[in-house]
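Board work, copied verbatim: ArsA family ATPase
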Amino acid sequence: MTSDPARDPDTARPLDPARTLDVDALLDDPKTRIVVCCGSGGVGKTTTAAALGLRAAERGRKVVVLTIDPARRLAQSMGIDSLDNVPRRVKAVDGDGELHAMMLDMKRTFDEIVEAHADKERASAILGNPFYQSLSAGFAGTQEYMAMEKLGQLRSRDEWDLIVVDTPPSRSALDFLDAPKRLGSFLDGKLIRVLMAPAKVGGRAGMKFLNVGMSMMTGALGKLLGGQLLRDVQTFVAAMDTMFGGFRTRADATYRLLQAPGTAFLVVASPERDALREAAYFVERLAADDMPLAGLVLNRVHRSGAAQLSAERALAAAENLDESRIVDQEDGKVGLRNSSEASHEAPGNSPEAPGSSETPAPPEAPEAPEAPSELHDTQPPVAQLTAGLLRLHAERMQLLSREQRTRDRFTALHPEVAMAEVTALPGDVHDLAGLRAIGDRLAAGTDGDPAGAA
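↓ predict structure ↓
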């Protein structure tokens, strides 16, 4: 792969300013109504979503941040005791905008759908059904579908200028795109159609149909699942019959909303091989589903304020310091040995040595060796510390170079993707000030604040 001459491998700058993601333009555009942050786990999606929401609010927009991640970091960073299924306003936001935050409560969202689309008696029967309680609490795919439902609810209320969605970690972050299809497959499945048939036929005819048409299936499923569970499923399906079509209709509408021009997907990644491999997967999947990709946020990028000193030069300087320190120590020992030998040779060479007490030693003689010894004790630790710092700098420059190569591989595969690089902060983000700092780096796109980089 050819390297770009416009890019210095030690400074970790982007390849082409034309491909820099303009975050402020995206947030300021009144046509942008939904921003979806997706990516693998541990890359800072939750922090990025919160920082985007805060920045948009402080630039005058009315924003709600919806997190699907069960972690509590979002609430903590925004100064809220806890998040739930109701948007909570965040205080201490500068500017004329508003910021609200919420965390998806999967079961509560399901309950709200039932309560909104069934009469009181039927809603009560559904909510009390054991199978429904299991389904709404953690059935595979329910979280993703409920995320689609909640996003659709928020958008339909038209209360916020901008909705920022923080998706779950790993590849399941895009599972909510498949939720309508999976739900449709489930509702169109043979088992559901058979279970719904008695409710559609109704009365004794329905029970007769169930007894005759499902005798073998009921026996098999009863042994596998238990007779009571099967009866719970049948009761649930009968009660939900009139609602299934509504589920599919709303899910399909939300799916089309995600494809609309007012939606922007941001893929969040760190400058590591696995994270950028996942990012490439997200980019390709979004393109395949005709989802509007705004760009890539490359999070926690490392930089150095002394990039002119390469890793090789720093290591060479450290080695030179070590070698000169070793030579100095050996010379010192040789000097001491020579001095000792000279003192031993002096009596043999001096005719006055035996029994002589007439050779007075200068008063300063006993103190003379202390000066070089004191200097010798001071210099090596300084040299050792300097060598250690040079090696740390070399490691940092090697890290920068590794991040650069990984980033270049991604841009070679996806040159069309705009990118914003976010310089790593010295510590964790745990308050609004930290979120503002991340927002500033997002808006800077490439330059950030190298002096404050971690």
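Strands lie at 34-38, 62-67, 88-89, 98-103, 162-166, 263-269, 293-301, 419-423.
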